[in-house]
Structures are given as structure tokens and as C-alpha cells.
Amino acid sequence: MGVLADYLADFAKVLGTPHQVHLDRLEEGSVVPVILVEREAVPKVRERVHRLSIGAGPADAVRAYQSINERLRIDNGSGSIVDVDAGGAEIIFFPGRESSDQSYGAIRRQGTLDGELIRVGGRDRNRVRVMLQSEKRSVGNIHAKKSLAKELGNHLYEPVRLFGTGRWRRDPIGIWTLEDFSVDSFERLKSDKLSSAITSLRAIGGGEWTAEAYQEISDLRDEEEDD
């Protein structure tokens, strides 16, 4: 029981939002904890796990992932996180006993980075440094051309999405680390919550807003975020 408790403690850190994530049951056979995530927390948990899978997760989640994988290696096992609502799709793999000392060379691919813009500047004006704050974790190794950096500077301390090409490296246990990201463009992200948006809609008038209407809009938002 103590070993299982240690695994679950690390697993809770991987998922985050501890007050909205619950152990539902343990299935028969191999140890299969079934986790119930409260509906409103599903987008946050999915985003956190996705970021972890590409090496952009918060530091506490990365440490918990590494701890689980090391425990599995010692226990001669392996594991994965699957999304039951997505047809049992595997979203993170813990190689455990299958881990090797082999690391993977850097690869380049297009992608996006989201977060609060906390820094734009540096000595190199042709390759201006940019830094984001994402879930209490600073994301550096980002740069942009001078003209684009000047535009970004107008949105300091605002949430943004950066589009560009990154260079990633995978370590022996499967964690991807961002080594470099070149920004091609960006967009501002709205930080308004759903409740604030509905308050604005109510002010328009022309109909009654019920709890059912709120839930329907929330459902639509979740579906869009899942696509």
C-alpha cells in the first residue's frame, strides 16, 4: 500500500488541480488506477499532460514523471496514461524497465508556445531574446527578429501564443526538452473567463439565461478545446 501511495502521490502531481482530480477505483489485474477528473478541470488537465509530453510541462510535473518512471524501472514495470473519453488513446508513456541510456538527437518542427510574455530584449538585436511564464514555469530559449520583437514588446505581461519552429531533444526516459524556438508570428490570447463572457452576454438582453444554458455553452467550449 505504501508503494501504491507513492505512485499515486506522483501521479497527482502529473495531473495537477488536486482538488478536482479523484481516485475512483483500482481495476483488477495489473495496478490500474482509474482517475475521475471533474468536468471543469478536464481542459486544464489535458493541456498540462500534453505540455508534459512535449517537454514544456511545469517543473513539478516533470519531476513527478521522472519519479514514476524511475519507480517503474526499479519495479521492473512500465506504464502509460490513457484517456478513456478519447477511446483509450495513450497520451503519456512511462518506459520504466524499457528505459535505456540512449538519448535522441535534436529534431526541428513547427509548433506553438503559450504563456504570459515576461521578457523581450537582449544585446543581440538580430536575435532578440523572448521569455514566457507558463504555469509558474519560465520558458526561455526563445528568440525573434528585431521587427517582430518590437511588436511583441507592446504586449509585455499579456498572454500570447507564439508560432514558430522549435528544436527539441528527447532524453532516455522520454522527456522532450526545448533547446531553441524561433518565433515567426504571434497572437494575443484572451484571459477572460467563461463566467465573465456570459455576464457580458446577459447585459445584451433578449432572453433568459438559466443554469442549463450556462452548461450548454460550457459543453460547447469543452468540445472545441478537445478538437
Keywords:
OB fold (Dihydrolipoamide Acetyltransferase, E2P), single chain, 9 strands, 227 residues, disordered C terminus, 34% helix, alpha+beta, two-stranded antiparallel ribbon
Please characterize this protein's 3D structure.
Helices cover 34% and strands 36% of the residues. With 227 residues, it is of the alpha+beta class. The chain has three domains: 2-98, no CATH class; 104-188, OB fold (Dihydrolipoamide Acetyltransferase, E2P) (Beta Barrel), CATH 2.40.50; 194-226, no CATH class. Helix 1 runs antiparallel to helix 3 (59-74). The two termini are 38 Å apart. The model is unreliable at 205-209 and 221-227 (pLDDT under 50).
Q: Shape, please?
A: elongated
> What structural class do helix, strand and pairing data support?
alpha+beta
Strand content: 35-45%
Helix content: 25-40%
Low-confidence stretches: 205-209, 221-227
Return the domain count.
3
Q: How many E strands?
A: 9
Give the SSE string.
Answer: HEEHHEEEEEHEEHH
N-end to C-end Cα span = 38 Å
Give the number of helices: 6
Work out the radius of gyration: 20 Å
Strands in their spatial order, largest beta sheet: 5-6-7-9-8
Mean pLDDT: 79
Characterize the largest beta sheet: strand count, sense, and whether it forms a barrel. 5 strands, mixed, barrel
